[in-house]
Amino acid sequence: MTSQVLLVVNRPSLTAPAHSPTAAPFTVVDCDAAQLSVLDLGATRGDGIFESISVSAGHPQALDAHLQRFARSAAMLELPQPDVAVWREAILAAIAGLVPPQSGESWVKTVMTRGVEGDNRPTGWVYATHSPDFTAARTDGLSVVTLDRGYRHDVAQTSPWLLAGAKTLSYAVNRAAVREAVRRGADDVIFVSSDGIVLEGPTSTVVMRHGNTLLTPATDLGILAGTTQATVFDWAALKGFSTEYGSFSVADLEAADALWLVSSVRLAAPIRELDGKTVTIDAEFTTRINAELGAQSS
Ligand code: PLP
Fold first, then answer.
1. Of 43, 84, 157, 270, which has the highest C-beta tally within 10 A?
2. Sorting pLDDT into bands at 50, 70 and 90, what band is 186?
3. Ligand 1 in contact with 106 (CB < 6 A)?
4. What spacing in Å lies between the alpha carbon of 21 and ligand 1's midpoint?
């Protein structure tokens, strides 16, 4: 059984005027009815931020980390600071509205845009629905190609206006990269900086295992700080693995014992092929990671 829940957040930020000062902070609305102005800057310019949050058996995963990143993205875009308490409550209300509420895997998307041009009020909504079946990606793995992102590894420091590392609504480039992967006969992408440093997937974080160490690109490389990768690293450290953030080349990926793309909703997807070369899947470790990710309820 599927269901969808949509909440419009009337008071997305304490620092910006509410859409209707007397209305509740958020309201359940009809998913099938139009809610967004054609003049909304989120729609016309991709000028806004979002989060996608896994929900396992009714519990949002890494909710605090997602809310903190939502606020960080807002700050990077100079949007009004989200009222985190309102967003948290709206997320929980959206999940509670799913039918059946506690079943299997679902996900929630939060969006805050700059609103209608000149209106000075951000637009916000929360959408929840049941997840598609990711069994194939999680068990058979992904064929991945590396693609040049066209920016140097230090773009976040040299050109902060490019918003590298913010979770903005402008994902047309990320979608185009996946289409390029499909044209090349692959499923997904690992972006590499123009100076050869491994970055991230278009919707995921790269994790590799070399022996007893899990490694991932450092977040000062102009990439998104992944909540899933952070959860995996916390768990792995408790299990006696070393964890490392750093600068890695494609040769480091090729030398790894196992590779994953990890993200909310799809969770840990092992890589079975990188640029046409076979990569060994660590099925047992993948199952353990995904069991842990599904069990988190912070
Ligand atoms: N990097 C990018 C560009 C993403 O879009 C995402 C997720 O959407 C991630 C990394 C992984 O982040 P998370 O694990 O918090 O979902």
1. 270
2. very high
3. no
4. 34
